[in-house]
Structures are given as C-alpha cells and as structure tokens.
Write a structure and sequence with these properties.
There is one protein chain. The chain has about 190 residues and is of the alpha+beta class. The chain folds into two domains: about 5-125, no CATH class; about 135-190, Winged helix-like DNA-binding domain superfamily/Winged helix DNA-binding domain (Arc Repressor Mutant, subunit A, Orthogonal Bundle). The protein is built from seven helices and five strands. Helix 4 crosses helix 6 and helix 5 crosses helix 6 (about 160-175).
C-alpha cells in the first residue's frame, strides 16, 4: 500500500523526469540548429509526424500556426529529405505564420525515440506588406527564381538599366542590401 508521502515522491520524480527530457530535447535541437530565434520543431521522418514543438516568442506564436498545416509541412520535409535537398528548405514558408530559417538532420536521436528526425528553426512570418508595383513584383519574382539582370531584362523585354533601377527600388522598399536578403524578404512577405 502506497502512502501519500510515497505518491508525492513518485509524482515529483515523474515531473523532474519530464523536465529533464524536455531540457535534453531542447539542448539537442539548439546544438544542431546553432540558432533559433522564434520557434522550432522536430519531425519524425519514419512516422511522418511532428514529434516536438516549442515557441520562444510570447506575442507572436508562429509554432502554433504550424499545427494547422502540420501534414503539409511534414510531407514537404520528408520529400525534400528523401531527395537529399533538406538544406533547400531554408527560406520557405512552413505555415501561414512561419518561415523556415534553419534545418538540421538529427539522425536517429535518442531524445526523439531513435527515429530518423529533422529539426526546423522557424521565424515569424512578417505580415506587413510593402506596396510594390506590378513591374516591381515581376522583377522580384525573376530575381527570386535565380535569373540574372541580363536574363530578367530579356524575359521582360526591357533594358538591363531598367532592371537595375527596379532592383534599387526593391532594395530600398524592402530594406535589404543583397539578393539573398531580397529573396528571404520576398518569400516572407509573399511579394512574388
């Protein structure tokens, strides 16, 4: 027969075990990702499900938004992992309110049941839309797709100098200084 003291000790032991497990999971993910600013999650590739989720922000819960689109995100990560392109997920939207800012293959981590897992760092998706003209959106789309200034000019049938002018406007309006930042901002704001 268990006494109330023994039940209290067992209960406290269970609480401490859960806290330690959570701490080990968080440490494993942070070491693998190296940087997590807003939120993160771990996806079990074998079971094809989200196994762990945490949010570091109070006012902007981006991890919670992932739950509404969980299956789409899991399938995206699983298919990119199977194709060996998991690193190409960075910069892509993970949900309506989150963008993937980092990816790490955790392998068969003990902290997550020794199943093959991938960790994702998530950033809050900016909702403020910058007003861009139709032509600026076209130029931004081509740049995000990887076209050079010369190719974008040929596709749009305008001069290279005009493309450069549009690029300067885009940099100024979106407050970026290089093409990588332009690409991230365009994807985050769903500009193109």
């Amino acid at each position: 027969m268990l006494t109330s003291f023994m039940i209290g000790v067992v209960s406290r032991h269970a609480e401490l075990y859960v806290q330690c497990s959570e701490h080990r999971r968080r440490e494993r993910v942070w070491r693998a990702l190296r940087k997590v600013s807003d939120a993160g999650c771990v996806i079990d590739l074998e079971a094809r499900r989200l196994v762990w989720l945490f949010d570091l922000t109070e006012g902007r819960p981006c991890a919670g938004a992932l739950l509404t689109e969980e299956q789409e995100v899991v399938e995206l990560v699983a298919s990119e992992h199977a194709a060996g392109r998991v690193d190409q997920l960075v910069g892509r939207p993970a949900a309506a309110a989150a963008i993937i800012s980092g990816v790490a293959n955790l392998g068969c981590a003990l902290e997550f049941g020794q199943a093959p897992c991938v960790a994702l760092a998530l950033d809050h998706l900016e909702r403020e839309q910058v007003p861009l003209s139709a032509r600026e959106r076209e130029v931004a789309r081509l740049l995000v797709e990887g076209y050079s200034v010369v190719n974008a000019a040929a596709i749009l049938s305008i001069s290279e100098n005009s493309i450069r002018t549009y690029v300067r406007r885009l940099y100024r309006k979106l407050e970026v200084t290089n093409r990588a930042d332009l690409t991230r901002k365009c994807i985050a704001q769903r500009v193109c």
